[in-house]
Amino acid sequence: MRFLKKPASVKGTLLALLLPAGIGLMGVAWLVHGLLLDRMSREFVESRLKDEVAFLEHQIRDANGEVDTLQTGDYFQDVFHHAFAIHTPEQTIISPDTWEPLLTPLIENEEDGTVRVEDAETTDTPLDILAYRKSFQVGETPIVVIVSEDLGALKRSQAALHAWTAVVSVLLIMLLVAVLWFGITMSMRPVVTLKAALKRLQDGEISRINVQSPEEFHPLVLQLNQLLDSLDQRLERSRDALANLSHSVKTPIAAVRQILEDDTRPLDTNLRRQMVERLSDIDRQLEAEMRRSRFAGPQIGKSAYPIKQARDLLWMLGRLYPEKSFELSSSLPEDSRWPIEEHDLNEVLGNLLDNAGKWSSRCVELSVEQGSGFKRIVVADDGPGVNHKDLASLGQRGLRLDEQTPGHGLGLAIVRDIVTRYEGKISFSTKSCSGLRVFIEFSK
Amino acid sequence: MRLLLVEDDRLLAEGLVRQLGKAGFSVDTTPSAREAVVLGEQEDYRAVVLDLGLPDGNGLDVLRKWRTNHVSCPVLILTARGDWQDKVNGLKAGADDYLAKPFQTEELIARLNALVRRSEGRVHAQVKAGRFELDENRQSLKMDDGVEHTLTGTEFRLLRCLMSRPGHVFSKEQLMEQLYNLNDSPSENVIEAYIRRLRKLVGSETISTRRGQGYIFNAIP
Predict the structure, then answer these.
(1) Strand pairing category for B97-100 and B126-129
(2) What pLDDT score was predicted for residue A69?
(3) CA-CA distance, A422 to B80, in Å (whole number)?
(4) Whole-number mean pLDDT of chain A?
(5) CB contact under 8 A, B152 and A350
(6) How far apart are CA B50 and CA A17, in angstroms?
(7) pLDDT, tens digit, for every residue of A191-232?
(8) Of A91, A147, A377, A384, which one has the fewest beta carbons inside 10 Å?
(9) Closest Cα of chain B to A411: distance in Å?
(10) pLDDT tens-digit profile of A408-429?
């Protein structure tokens, strides 16, 4: 089986499996055919010999034991094509004469029934014969009748028949190969069309694969098209982002450059402040667009370790805010995986924890849980919280609730974007004494 | 206060030297990673500002070299990449704080002062028990095979308490006092949950339960 382990091609594997199996089966059928043919012909010859003996007996009884009156000579041989011997106490008739050395021992044998003589040590006689001996009495005369047939001739014709069967078998095998080849080629045709479609896709002749594919290939084609969709979306998004970015970045650059190139204009405090503002704008835009374009969204084959990542982030924030405590509450095992791209999950956890760290007075708690059909992240801090009327607008683009402590602004907007992309839910709640609680649930 | 500034952008470095000088630091500056390694090991700086993208090497490698050679002055890393994983990696390599470019000089100076203050107050101590070493500065647990595990605040406090006296039975009430200032209404379940988590890290045979009495840290060599 080892040579089947790594199939080079489906076609090759199918042929390698089906062809030997077909040939083997055909061979077995041929052998069985030979055995059956042998047995059948022997039974047939035996019954015929019996019939002939019965016929001879009948003739002899009709002639009242007068063997001489029987039409002998070549008559029986002509009728039956067999050799025979009739023995009475007076005389013995053996026809043809050449069989005499073979049949004489049988007459003397005094044993009725079928006898097979092989490798007889006589000349001019067949080597292998089948004979039927019967003794009976007509009146007072005991008579022995033997009819025999040359099995060699029979075997020769049998062998010829068997050889013909072999020829037919070989022809059938060739037909089988042709049918197999045809069948495999037919059933592999969708793959070939798919291959052609992919080639055309690569060459840009078509934009989506639209092939009449058999049921087994539907998921494949669907996945491929989804992959293409997501590629298109990504390209479109990054183009949009770049267009937005260049629009909002080039203008301030032009303004700053214009001021710097004009060496007659003195750089007073007001002008400096304005230039710094322009540069800050550029930085903000860049940062926002870059972070937005960096996250991946749901992807096949990507997963994250929520507990490991949460631990690292909590530890890092604990080092950055040594006077605050960052705690993890989770019953998940250390190596559990979530189907979220690693960087995306880091961005969600990092932004939420960073915000909470900035606003909390002493303690931030992250809870990561997982149940049947949901995955939940809750980040709670003990800071001042957010006004109830502002809760709904948290994380909306462009909104910044507080200018002093940078936070609850861009970070939450990114979190909201990512959660939406993963078809999750995000909600905020606040209590008078417990600060802000961010609640995220992914259903997948 | 002597400060080392490792930054390859000359314009930025010059500006920072001026501003940091005004803030009371005497600044040495170098644009190369190779020189930074040597300077950090030879001179006695109170703080280091380290840019990660250097022309002749990665700032993180410089930092790792310093830390393996026991250069323990606080390091603030400057990075243009705002990736969370980068920040985690920076701190894991031994940095004490990070600042994303572009930054305001006031913020850099405030952070540096905070770092210096923190470093003066810190106790350079490692708690060792059995196969484990608890790093108080880095709030992390080092195994004898060199693997470092990061700990949250409560996990660290609890483990430090247990490891401070191996073989001693700590009752739940005693341990709760360690966490009391963190959770306003702690229940005994909290302790059990933290012990469970710590056992996942150090192995269940290391922290054993004495029924009705409390928990023991076993210093198994």
Answers:
(1) unpaired
(2) 65
(3) 28
(4) 81
(5) no
(6) 66
(7) 788 888 888 888 888 888 776 667 777 888 888 888 888 888
(8) A91
(9) 12
(10) 467 888 888 889 888 899 988 8
In the CATH hierarchy, which fold is given to the domain comprising B2-119?
Rossmann fold (3.40.50)
**DSSP characters for A310-325?**
HHHHHHHHHHHSTTSE
Element holding B128 (H helix, E strand): strand B126-129
**A219 cis-preceded (ω within 30 degrees of 0):** no
Which residues belong to CATH 3.40.50.2300 in chain B?
2-119
Query: Residue ranges of chain B with pLDDT lower than 70?
Result: 121-125, 178-186
Q: Does the pLDDT of residue A7 top 80, yes or no?
A: no
Distance of CA A166 to the CA centre of its chain: 37
Question: Which sign, positive or negative, has the C-alpha torsion B143, B146, B151, B154?
Answer: positive
pLDDT in tens, A43-93: 888 898 888 888 888 888 887 777 766 655 555 555 556 777 888 887 777
Scan for tokens 């033997």, then name that residue. Answer: A146
β-bridge pairing B214-217 and B47-51:
unpaired
Neighbours of B177 (CB within 10 A): 13
How many Cα neighbours within 13 Å face the side chain of A210? Answer: 4
CB-based contact A319 B91, cutoff 8 Å: yes
Q: Do A313 and B193 touch (CB under 8 A)?
A: no
Q: Which A residues, 356 through 375, put their C-beta within 8 Å of a C-beta on chain B?
A: 362-363
Q: How high is the pLDDT of residue A367?
A: 92
Q: Two tokens at A136?
A: 């009976």
Quickly name the fold that domain B126-217 has. Answer: Arc Repressor Mutant, subunit A (1.10.10)
Give the count of beta carbons closer than 10 Å to the beta carbon of residue A175. Answer: 10
Interchain contact A308–B (C-beta under 8 A): no
